[in-house]
Amino acid sequence: MFCGIDLGSRSVKLVIMDQEGVKRSEIFETVQFYRNYGQPGENGLIVDFASVGVGKFDKVVATGYGRNTINIVGATVIAELKAHMIGAMWQTGLTDFTLLDLGGQDSKVIKVRKGKMVDFATNDKCAASTGRYLENMATVLGISLAELSSYKENPVELSATCAIFGESELIGRIVEGYSVPELAAGVNYTIFKRIKPMLHSLSSEVIVFTGGVALGKAIGQTISSELGVEVVVPKYPQLNGAIGCGVYSWEKRG
Amino acid sequence: MANIGITTTVPVEIILAAGNVPVDLNNVFITDKEANRLVEGAEDAGYPRNICGWIKGLYSVVVERGNIDTVLAVTQGDCSNTHALMETLQLVGVETIPFAYPFDRDYDLLKLQMDKLITALKTDWEQVMAVKKRLDGVRSKIAEMDRLTWQENLVSGWDNHVFQVSCSDFNGNVNEFEQDIDQFLLKTKSANEFTEDIRLGYIGVPPIFNDLYGHFEKMGARVVFNEVQRQFAMPYQVEDLVEQYRLYTYPYGVFQRIEDIKGEIEKRNLDGIVHYVQSFCFRQIEDMIFREKLDIPILTIEGDKPGKLDARTKLRMDSFLEMLR
């Protein structure tokens, strides 16, 4: 049994798996995870796996935003983009595709050919195309993230140059009398506009869509209809990085 | 003898021939212990937050450090923000001299610019050419240092960067600079060979980060080509000084730079290119041209304020090396 951990900016994803599939999974808030199960040691962060309560495993592989700053004692640490690519290949069985991962603070686009990363792009200096933006907007609209991400018809025009200023822009539109579904569709469409240039330059016929944002249907459908591509959302979009870590542990073993 | 601040590489021969001391304001800014504070100083004076960090640093170096007599500002061929830099310096009483590289590399226009600079600084072509001969000797030593970097693998990317970037003003003292490079070359002969598995080229303006080269080396890669820095060192040794500054690629269009880069990718056997862009710089747009025209993996890195690499950028650098492997 293997353990894969993806230390994201907003949540820590953990899976216990073997070649047959995912046996258990947990998602923790990042700060809570460090506070409840982490302890700084001489050689990095010591994670109290017994308290996490995920049972026994033979090996731990970790990745995530903390890769440069946090070393988990006893774990092999691999590059984030690599973990996501391996996870997407294992989950979909595809070897030629473009991976789009929209997470808490990150947008990643990875072009994969014959099972190898040939190019990538990530957001930089700005989180306006990420889950954090959606979370803020859902709060302003007073709906859940799941509900927000289901609307795609009649999107209201939003510029969303900034995840923070987006809030006041949205409030302005509410005052103008637009309905919640139209406003939510507008929010989803701004995410699409933000990632479109990255998907254009790293295009494939198939887009594998992962990360917490992929849980909602609207953005994937917009990508598919506007770009004329097939969008595949794997079974565990949010756990994809952690699964990549799990897969890496036996691939490297053999 | 006056201290002439320069905003980028200019025909430094003219400044030296006139008996003045060239001071590359960029180098003063970036090696200042309080480089970040210099940026903040310009913002306090009213510079917008979303303007290039280098321009703000240059402004504060002149205004706060107080030992610059005149600023020679390149108003065409480097950065249009320099126009406003000149104007805001004039506003606080600093004397400025404009210098423009003609966009189309026109020989006569460039010569006219140099003539005017010679007149402004009260020297003549004879003295300028004598300085050129003197500098040719120093520049050939820098070229040797560069060769030792990519061909013999004896020089780090950082040392290669520092020596070449310093050729804009020779640290204000040609003799001392020559002693430095002599000592370095002597020491390098017995240095250990670098054995990294990935060879990188660095293109774009010099980085505002101070640990970029070191981080790559820590991750098993080395920069063996510094594009713009090498241009600052005038790698094309020609008799005619006007021609020398015509062959210099940086101030003109991007396509000539691409020809230079293509040749060096081949010659230096590069695995990948790092394109550094400064936040809010027009050169960010040119990234799409490099990606279209250069058939090699490219990582684009963006920097804003001086200091260390941020975690996101490191993550992208690591992923790039992973991809090349």
Helix content of chain B: 40-55%
Which structural class should the secondary elements of chain B be placed in? alpha/beta
Taking the alpha carbons of the first and last residues of chain B, their distance comes to: 53 Å
Largest sheet of chain B: 4 strands, parallel
The main sheet of chain A comes to: 5 strands, mixed
The helix fraction of chain A, in percent, is 25-40%
CATH topology of the largest domain in chain B: Rossmann fold
Radius of gyration of chain A: 19 Å
Q: Which geometry of chain A do the CA atoms define?
A: globular
Dominant shape of chain B: globular
SSE layout and pairings?
The complex is a heterodimer of chains A (254) and B (325).
Chain A: E1 2-7, E2 11-18, E3 21-29, H1 30-37, E4 38-41, E5 44-47, H2 49-52, E6 59-64, E7 75-77, H3 80-92, E8 97-102, E9 107-113, E10 116-122, H4 131-141, H5 145-148, H6 165-175, H7 180-201, E11 206-210, H8 218-227, E12 230-232, H9 240-253
Parallel strand pairs in A: 1-6, 6-7, 8-11, 11-12
Antiparallel strand pairs in A: 1-2, 2-3, 4-5, 8-9, 9-10
Chain B: E1 3-6, H1 12-17, E2 21-24, H2 25-31, H3 35-45, H4 53-65, E3 70-76, H5 81-91, E4 95-100, H6 107-120, H7 125-150, H8 157-165, H9 174-189, E5 198-204, H10 212-218, E6 221-226, H11 227-232, H12 241-247, H13 254-267, E7 272-278, H14 287-293, E8 298-303, H15 311-324
Parallel strand pairs in B: 1-2, 1-3, 3-4, 5-6, 5-7, 7-8
Helix pairs in contact in B: 2-4, 3-4, 4-5, 6-12, 7-8, 7-9
